[in-house]
Amino acid sequence: MATHISLMPAPAPACNCRICPFYMDNPDAVEPICSGKNSGCSYCGCAAAEYGHRTGACNSCPVRCGSRVDIYDWMADVGGTLSFDDIPATSTIPKSIPRFIPVVDGVASELDSRISWPAYGIGLRRVYSPLTWDYKPLWKEGTAHDALRIPKERAIILVGYGTDPLVEAFWTRRKELYPLLAEKKFDLVLSPNYSMYGNHPRTEHLLNFRRNLLIASEMLDEGIPAVPNIYWFRKEDLDRYILWMEDVEPEAIAINLQTFRTDEDWEVMALPGLTYLAISMPQNIRVIINGTSRKERLAQLVELFGEQLTLVSQSPVQEARHGKVMKRDGGIDKIMALPEDAFAQSVSNVDGLIGDLLKESASSSQSPSFQQEVELD
Q1: Distance (Å, whole) CA 128 – CA 191
Q2: How are strands ordered across the β-sheet holding 155-159?
Q3: Which residue in 24, 19, 23, 25 sits closest to 5, CA to CA?
Q4: What is the 3-state secondary structure of 40-60?
Q5: Which end of the chain is more exposed for a tag (fewer CB within 10 A), N or C?
Q6: What is the rounded CA–CA span in Å between residue 48 and residue 69?
Q7: At what angle are helices 164-183 and 202-221 packed, to 10 degrees?
């Protein structure tokens, strides 16, 4: 480990901020990007933090912290830094990408026959197997259009989100997986996202924030048109993303909101961060959001991001498989339609709902009281 120590910084064991090279108040910090350990961390008192190198407890722990004996290996794996400064811009967004992208669950020719939508998404677990840790047989030959059996005029987006074991396995094998992924000719890839849990140590947060940007950059180097997913836990995390966006001017970022299921999660964690991003980030960046289709939340997203917003959702196909249609007013109808008919109606209705919300948002922003407030400011 001495060689590693001499070449790169690493988080301090036991989250000891005083000597950590990433702590903002450490005068000797080489990358002062963290305001301190996570007070809500469930792992700071674990046996591994103190005795892991002797007991072997770190070997079975899924969480990365400064006490791990392999922490320098993880630092090397992300490039020897936790900053974003060396990560370049992401790929160009195809002009054919609409404001709503429905995610399909396999061969989509029947679904497409009823609506001929400009773009479809497909989830990572449909392409990369959680059982074999390899591409599924359908995806080993031909292009993404061949696998889904839809015309080349449609854009296909790989939605690279999945369970932690799935995306971790993809990370481990990513260098050998990239060449075949490039051959699939996806029009866009929302790169795999590495989780942020509120009870994890800051080391885990910072490594995963870095990995989320880095994997998109690596994909781009391999000819894969990728957009990074971003997560955050504190304002300082958002500030770093905003500085990165100002420096590299990406065309788009992606945000996965699937884990914010409860109203408390949404109000306490998701919405404040989204609001801060909307206010502070450059205004010409597309924001591709996955994981919400509720009308009240869509209204908030439209209010924040307006025409910058692109929504990705698997709800239309899930509802269609049960004979249900998503209505334009946000409700659900059980009409026992054929899946392809229900899917077509739902996609059209969700897109229409977004359009309605955009009009309402534009109308309210042009009201006399709003104009007066702007002038007074």
Answers
A1: 13
A2: 226-227, 188-190, 155-159, 119-123, 100-104, 309-313, 286-290, 252-256
A3: 19
A4: CCCCCCCHHHHHHHHHCHHHH
A5: C
A6: 10
A7: 10
Strands 188-190 and 155-159: parallel
Closest listed residue to residue 286, CA positions, set 312, 320, 260: 312
Nearest to 137 by CA among 128, 145, 146: 128
User: DSSP letters along 197-254, please?
Assistant: -TTS-HHHHHHHHHHHHHHHHHHHHTT--EE-B---SSHHHHHHHHHHHHHH--SEEE
CATH class of 100-376: alpha beta
With 80 as the cut, is the pLDDT of residue 157 above it?
yes
- Please identify which residue in the block is written with the tokens 């990728």: 226
Quote the CA–CA distance of 199 and 37 in Å, as a whole number: 11
Tell me how far apart the alpha carbons of residues 375 and 321 are, in angstroms, rounded to a whole number. Answer: 51
Q: Cβ(298)–Cβ(291) under 8 Å? A: no
Q: How many residues does the chain have?
A: 377
Proportion of the chain above pLDDT 90, given as a percent: 77
184-234 pLDDT, tens digit per residue, is: 999 999 999 999 998 999 999 999 999 999 999 999 999 999 999 999 999
